[in-house]
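User: Design a sequence. Structure:
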């Protein structure tokens, strides 16, 4: 006698599939009425969801790798600019918003959302992972977020502060996931992502510097309405400043200065094969060249300071004798580039009016005055321009103060400054422990993180660019890696499929050791 229950179940599944297919067909038929770009976006989204369902076992690892490669495009998205934004002398309201932080939806947001949905699936449905435990850097991150929230009490425009808080919250979410899931097997992908970023920024930066085209690529995401735009700083009118895929030449300079240490320290890792070291050396030279094309003095100084710090660590801490021949080769390369680079640097300093510096120094005193009026919790995050309208008694130029400490202090008070730099110090301590361990790939990454954080702090002494999307995302990834590589791998009740099979192949091809 036939199994009627099995036939019914099979028929039901087919009927449900047919019904859902019909519903989907009706929904898809409405796509033809959309504008071309939204039609393309929707189709790509459907294909992406379909691919995700097919490769569900590899989905989280795939998205994590995509996240690493997407950092240069962190600013690509739809921003919800508040109508209450003010315009300043050198910046439009929208640019001020990107400096302060504003709510929006972009490439990184979709990737992070997908990672969290898959994480929830593993914890709540598969029960293959346990709820993550907190560590000391988590508390620093949450305290920094608390400084944002507390600063909103009594601020001028709460809406601006909420936008800045939502913006920060997205990066803390990025940190929380990466810090729990980044492993040594991801290091080859991370290094490949850095090389990819340098190629992208180098390509765009070179075109921008030599031709003056695509200058506003990061501002309009390639739409074409602002590709000839570049704000002018006195003394730089004769140059086209490279901005890459970022919003500003200073933020590109910061981004490059934070990546260069990974290429530099990697050259002294015995476990990396010569071929990949050659690629890393080329990436470092390209980074330095594009950094010069940004004409950002703060980026130059930050890079120089971090490289001096790197040499000190390599010579006196690691006691690596290869530093001397490396410096000799570097000096020869410098002599080859000198006719172009030295003249460019000298012109940048000579042709820039002294007023560009005195204006910034005047802004320091204004920020100190604002901070003195609100010492503990600040005037309110996202409200620095509003504070200028209230406290700028000397009628100095209404620009955001070019100093991260003073900017945080005036907006979030002592609480914000202590928690932010406490977060950096805690991450630097973990990176130091990695660097002082056995001379392996983990120590190399730890040393590079330490030097990159040095560049981040130094650059922040002269610009307000630390919150722009790409360098801020990279900053939080560095914080995440300092946690992930110094904590034990959590046990799971079910080992879901990963791309571990792919990782060793990449590691073997580039000469990185396998974990």
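Assistant: Done.
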């Amino acid at each position: 006698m036939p199994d009627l229950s099995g036939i019914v179940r099979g028929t039901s599944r087919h009927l449900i599939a047919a019904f859902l297919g019909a519903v989907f067909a009706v929904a898809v038929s409405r796509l033809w009425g959309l504008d071309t770009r939204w039609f393309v976006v929707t189709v790509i989204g459907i294909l992406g969801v379909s691919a995700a369902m097919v490769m569900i076992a590899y989905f989280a690892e795939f998205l994590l790798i995509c996240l690493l490669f997407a950092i240069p495009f962190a600013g690509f998205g739809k921003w919800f600019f508040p109508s209450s934004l003010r315009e300043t002398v050198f910046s439009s309201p929208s640019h001020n918003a990107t400096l302060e932080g504003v709510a929006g939806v972009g490439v990184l947001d979709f990737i992070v959302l997908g990672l969290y949905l898959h994480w929830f699936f593993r914890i709540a449905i598969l029960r293959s992972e346990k709820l993550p435990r907190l560590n000391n850097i988590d508390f620093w991150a949450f305290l920094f977020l608390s400084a944002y929230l507390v600063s909103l009490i009594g601020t001028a425009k709460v809406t601006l502060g909420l936008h800045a808080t939502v913006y920060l919250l997205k990066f803390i979410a990025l940190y929380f996931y990466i810090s729990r899931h980044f492993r040594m097997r991801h290091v080859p992908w991370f290094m490949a992502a850095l090389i990819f970023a340098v190629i992208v920024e180098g390509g765009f930066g070179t075109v921008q510097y030599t031709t003056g085209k695509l200058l506003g690529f990061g501002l309009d995401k390639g739409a074409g309405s602002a590709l000839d735009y570049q704000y002018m700083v006195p003394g730089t009118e004769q140059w086209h400043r490279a901005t890459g895929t970022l919003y500003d030449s200073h933020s590109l300079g910061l981004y490059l200065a934070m990546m260069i240490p990974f290429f530099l320290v990697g050259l002294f890792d015995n476990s990396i094969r010569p071929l990949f070291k050659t690629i890393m050396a080329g990436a470092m030279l390209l980074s330095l060249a594009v950094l010069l094309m940004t004409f950002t003095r703060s980026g130059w100084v930050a890079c120089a300071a971090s490289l001096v710090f790197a040499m000190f660590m390599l010579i006196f801490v690691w006691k690596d004798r290869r530093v001397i021949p490396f410096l000799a080769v570097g000096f020869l390369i410098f002599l080859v580039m000198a006719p172009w680079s030295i003249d460019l640097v000298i012109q940048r300093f000579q042709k820039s009016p002294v007023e560009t510096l005195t204006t910034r120094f005047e802004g320091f005193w204004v920020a100190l005055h604002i901070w003195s009026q609100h010492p503990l919790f600040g005037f309110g995050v996202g409200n620095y321009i509003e504070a200028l309208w209230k406290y700028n008694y000397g009628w100095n130029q209404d620009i955001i103060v070019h100093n991260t400490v003073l900017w945080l202090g005036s907006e979030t008070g002592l609480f914000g400054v202590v928690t932010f730099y406490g977060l950096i110090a805690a991450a630097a301590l973990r990176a130091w422990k990695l660097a002082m361990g056995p001379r392996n790939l983990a120590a190399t990454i730890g040393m590079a993180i330490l030097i990159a954080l040095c560049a981040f702090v130094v650059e922040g002494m002269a610009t307000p660019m630390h919150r722009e999307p790409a360098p801020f995302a990279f900053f939080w990834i560095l914080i995440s890696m300092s946690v992930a590589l110094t904590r034990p791998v959590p046990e799971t009740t079910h080992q879901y499929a990963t791309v571990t099979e792919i990782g060793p192949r990449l590691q073997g091809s580039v000469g990185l050791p396998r974990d």
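Confidence is low (pLDDT under 50) at residues 491-515. Residues 35-510 form one domain.
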